Amino acid sequence: MEFPRHVLVRARCAKRWRGHNFDAAAAEGAVGAAVADMFGMRVKTMPELEAFMRRALVRAYSSGLDSNPATAFDPAMGEAFEFHVGIREPLDDATFARVENVVRDAVAKSRNFSLTA
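Predicted structure:
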């Protein structure tokens, strides 16, 4: 997929789950909701979600997944995550800056997450 504009926000999650990270899923949803709101879109139904996904794609990836869940986990370090938002349409610089800000804010406000450089 090609995206004319792409936002990447790196963060750490202080809680480690075995298997799926529910905090990351909630944060990913919060990012999508924030971007949709910034675009002035309502995303409550499947057709509305499809319309949003034609404009943007939101994904969260963990670069710190360990295949052995028994490994000692240091909550001070947390687990590394990357939140990617691909914008499928051209945006002017001011609008793109607003998208970057709402994505950062949504991740920063998510439970157990803190932004990293």
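Summary: DSSP finds three helices and four strands in the chain.
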